[in-house]
Amino acid sequence: MVRALVEEKIRSALSPTILKLVDKSGGCGAAFDAVIVSSLFEGKSLLDRHRLVNSALSEEMEKIHAFSMKCHTPKEWEEKSKND
Fold first, then answer.
1. Could you give the dihedral angle defined by the CA atoms of residues 29, 17, 47 and 82, in that order, rounded to the nearest 10 degrees?
2. pLDDT band per the 50, 70, 90 thresholds, residue 83
3. CATH number for region 2-83
4. What is the C-alpha separation between 6 and 18, in angstroms, rounded?
5. For residue 25, what is the DSSP state?
6. Is the separation of the CB atoms in 34 and 21 below 8 Å?
7. What value does the mean pLDDT take over residues 14-19?
8. Is the separation of the CB atoms in 32 and 80 below 8 Å?
């Protein structure tokens, strides 16, 4: 249930073109790895991108013990995909 809520909040706030969310806690929703690709990250520093995500998840962060995120613009993701 926590995973679905986290995904819903990210989608609503950031309109990502790609969202990969992995529950690393064995299903209890306490730890997540996320890859978020959104045009809202354009022109923003890494810190500001993380702040946008943290703001979207402010209520859920009280229940989550670990949240690792990689935030990319669509152009950055395209370049990364070419190089992988």
1. 110
2. confident
3. 3.30.300.90
4. 14
5. S
6. yes
7. 98
8. no
- H runs (alpha helix) in 27-73: 46-56
Tally of CA atoms within 13 A in the half-sphere of 54 that contains its CB: 11
Give, in degrees to the nearest 5, the angle at Cα 16 between 68 and 8.
75
pLDDT tens across 24-72, in order? Answer: 988 777 899 999 999 999 999 999 999 999 999 999 888 888 999 999 9
Indicate the domain borders of the chain: 2-83
Q: Which residue has the tokens 């929703």?
A: 29
Read off the pTM: 0.92
Average pLDDT estimate for 1-14: 93
Q: Is a pLDDT exceeding 80 seen at residue 84?
A: no
pLDDT at residue 2 tops 90: no
Residues 9 and 3: their CA atoms lie apart, in Å, by: 10
